[in-house]
Structure formats: C-alpha cells, structure tokens
Amino acid sequence: MTLLIIADDLSxxxxxxxxxxxxxxxxxxxLDASHDTGDASVVAIDTDTRRLxxxxxxxxxxxxxxxxxxxxxRLYKKIDSTLRGNWASxxxxxQSHAGLAIVAPAFPATGRTTLxxxxxxxxxxxxxxxxxxxxxxxxxxxxxxxxxxxxxxxAKLTLDxxxxxADALAGHIVEMAGSDIQALIVxxxxxxxxxxxxxxxxxxxxxxFWVGSGGLARELAxxxxxxxxxxxxxxxxxxxxxxxxxxxxxxxxxxxxQCAMLKERASIGELVVPPSVLxxxxxxxxxxxxxxxxxxxxxxxxxxxxxxxxxEAFDPAEGARLSTLLAALVRPHFAxxxxxxxxxxxxxxxxxxxxxxxxxxxxxEIEAGVAFGRPIATRHGHRPGVVTKAGAFGTDHALYAAWLxxxxxxxxxxxxxxxxxxxxxxxxxxx
Length: 431
Known about the structure:
The chain contains 16 helices and 18 strands. The protein has 431 residues and is of the alpha/beta class.
C-alpha cells in the first residue's frame, strides 16, 4: 500500500504515520508539500491548519492533496481523536475529489471511542472534558453536526452493522459510496472494531478515503498486504556528550504528569520560561538571560527539560506564538543538541522550522503515539534524532521513555515493574 496522510499538526502527522514505519514501509513526515519526499511509500504532511480560518484550512488541505497525491495512492485524512481543529471543513474540501469519507476518529488504546456518532473520552462525553471546554466551549462536539455544518450529507455505521456479517458490511459501504451520502460516521469501541473496518474498506474498489486518528491508521498498517518488515526499533547513536533537549510547549495536565515523572527518574535539568518573557520576545529585559541559561546547559552537554510556564493571562490561542519564541531562544544553541524530544505539535514544528529541518524519516515508535525519526536534510547539516508527541497524549511514562531511547538507556528494574503495572491498568481502563 502507498498512502498519503494529510494532518493538521506535526505530532499528529507523526503519530499517524509511525505505524507504517513500524510495518517496514519507508515513511516520511514533511512540513511542506514542496519538500522532496523521495520514493517513500507513506508520506504524511503537516498542513499546520489547526489555527487557521475554516476557509484557509480547507484551501491548504486541498493544495496538499493536489500537490502530493500520486497515481494509485490511497488517502488518509488524519484528524484529532478529540476533534480539535478545522477537520470537518478539510474533509469537505477533499470529499468531492476522493469519494466517500469513512469517518472513524476512535483510538481505543488511548481511551477515545465513538458510540452513536459521538466521541467518548474514557467513557465520558467529549464535551465534558477540560480539553474541549478550554478550546471549544461554544461548539457542539457532535460529529454529525460538525460535518453537516461543513456541508456534507452524513450517515452512521452502527456497532451492530460493523460487527455483523463481513460481506453485508462491505455491501453496505459500497451502497453508501454510490449514494448521495458523503461521510459515513463509524462507531468503534475496540481495536477489533477498527481492524474490521480496515480489512473491509482496504479491499473495496469503491471511491473512498479514511478519516481518522492514529487508531485506524494502526489497523491499516497491520494488514498482511502492508507488512513488509519486522519493524524493529533502531538504536539511536547519540554523539558523545551531545545532550538531549526535551522541549514542552503543551500545558495539558497529561504533559505536566509526564514532566514530573521525567524529572523524578532522569538525570535532567529544568528551565521553565515565563510566558511574559515569550510574549514580549527579544525586547524583554530577561530575554538574553534566558537564552544564556539554555546555552550553558547545552554547551556543558547536560540534558535539559525546557518548558513554557503558565500564568493568569494564558490563552490557548497564543500557543503557536509562544512556541515560536521558545524555539527562537533555543536556535542559537541547537548545534549542541544531540537529540530533541518535542511535546506539542506546534512546539515541534516551531523548533524544526527555526533550524531548517523540513522533513523527517520516521524510524520507530517508542510507545503509542511517540514517534522517533531523523531529519532527511537540514539547513546546516546537523541531524539529531527527533521524537514528537502530542501534548495531551500518552502515558505518564512517555517523556521518560523518550529520554531513555535518546540515551540508549535501560529503565531500572524498580521503575520498569511499576511502568508495566500502570500500562496494564491504563489498558484495562481504556477498553
């Protein structure tokens, strides 16, 4: 299978595409449609449209599709499992060109499921979560409503139909593709539900494309005709004394817990940059001091956790700007970085753009949604290992696991036992 993945942020593009790298397919994530992706079987592009207007997001998405889609290539529109961004208008822009949209945002391994066309997060309605209230308090979280608001005619695929006879399911989807329905919203509560959907839709010749999170992508990557290698995890050869920089722009509770575990278990320093410094930028009296402190850590070869602080003036809409200025503080010293771990898609993109890294060859997945890769080319020839992770995503162990990978380190036995137990409990809770 050759596949084009269109995502609206960098960490989303990577966590969706990484499953195909694990299946042995050459997989590239790019920040711009103009960058050379070589002969990669799977290309994921970050259109960076989450903060754009509805019309701009649709236009950028369609441009990426027209520029990158190759003959015979399938299309996967990656969306956030909690429906953030302009995804409905982006799907609408693609639909008239790509056929029936198979909409399945569920990611059961992370607690995101769909039932009766609505997203549940760990069993609770999406609209009751802090993430939704923080960014979309005035909007409906109903998938049907969002798609219809973008001008699409929709229908629902229930669990009973999905779990019924496979031939009947295939026939139903073909019928939908030949009707006036433009988006089919799929209920899914388990990985097996998504696996069934992947198997049936991958074998259909009807015009359709997938719309989903990393959950459905993993099941497509696991299909027998996709698998081409064992998907082993390459060892990261960090330059001697070259430090790991863990860059955290996300202010989510998940990220805070991940930072706490990293600090508790790793030999890593920490700097928390006040938002007031970033808002004012180079004109702030303390800007040079913060830049110097960051440089001192990295030049000494010391690993560093660098975070954006939070204050009463915090506004989710300023995330991209704060991330860009955080990257500006790091840029003069980036040549000293041996490995970069970036949490939050905006943060990762800002850092890579600041240092001239346009695309990554994905190599392996450290844990679900935590992708590791290497720059294909850079402005100055510096190619450190790069890990990306969505901000409100992953286990508490995720950043520590990324740090271990970058340092070729083995988790101490007393920690490993607890991590296995916690992962098992989380998996049970998410099922």
